[in-house]
Amino acid sequence: MLQIKVLLPLVLLLFTVSIRSQDKIIKLPEPQKEIGKPLMQALSLRQSTRTFSTEALSMQDMSNLLWAAFGINRSESGKRTAPSAMNWQEIDIYAVTAEGTFLYNAKDHSLLKVSNEDLRPLAGKQDFVKVAPLNLVYVSDMSKTGNSSSDDRLMYTSADCGFIAQNVYLYCASEGLAVVVRGMVDREALSKKLNLKPEQKIILSQTVGYMKK
């Protein structure tokens, strides 16, 4: 009886930890790959917008957006919707929202919560960044770039980030969402909040939301 009394609180504690761990992972719905405007129409509509509705994106829109950005489109090889030099796949996407910040996991098509804070003010220096529902922060993990030179790392990771940002632009043009890519980010403060390693570098941020009515 004494053993049961001792073990019961331990079991409850482990169960609670397990639940909390699961709560940090959000499985995204399957991306809707059949939707959207034809490519040439999306290109004609592509533009930067700096006014956003404060309405949060739906989980379906978040799923579609992240898959379009850098999701896996060839399951047999794990290759993605945007190219990367030497298939490094070194760019991580952080979704910064009012509810916290999440790391996109393309393999599981899920979001891992990495912060409970509203870090949007650190994701950009313009006023609209603080109220827009979503800021995508692109982080390059230089540890995945092998023995490449510092010049090659800078060139290739910047190009890889640009490919992803353009995918986001085209998805937003296709679906009528507002979007703008930005270089003005409080990199030092945001890196600390995200517990980034020295080899992880913030490249760009991209604000996304519904059109302001």
Question: Which properties best describe this structure?
Answer:
alpha+beta, seven-stranded antiparallel sheet, two-stranded antiparallel sheet, 9 strands, 37% helix, disordered N terminus
Structural notes for this entry:
This protein is of the alpha+beta class. 37% of the residues lie in helices and 24% in strands. It is built from six helices and nine strands, in the order H-E-H-H-E-E-E-E-E-H-E-H-E-H-E. The strands form two sheets. Strands 1-6-5-4-7-9-8 form a seven-stranded antiparallel beta sheet, sandwiched between helices. Helix 2 crosses helix 5. The N and C termini lie far apart (65 Å). The N terminus is likely disordered.
User: What is the overall shape?
Assistant: globular
- DSSP, total strands: 9
Task: Give the oligomeric state.
Answer: single chain
User: How is the largest sheet built, in terms of strand order?
Assistant: 1-6-5-4-7-9-8
Total DSSP helices: 6
Percent helix range? 25-40%
Largest sheet: 7 strands, antiparallel
Strand content: 15-25%
- First and last CA, distance: 65 Å
Helix/strand order: HEHHEEEEEHEHEHE
Mean pLDDT comes to: 90
What low-confidence regions span 5 or more consecutive residues with pLDDT below 50?
2-22
**Structural class by sheet pairing and helices:** alpha+beta
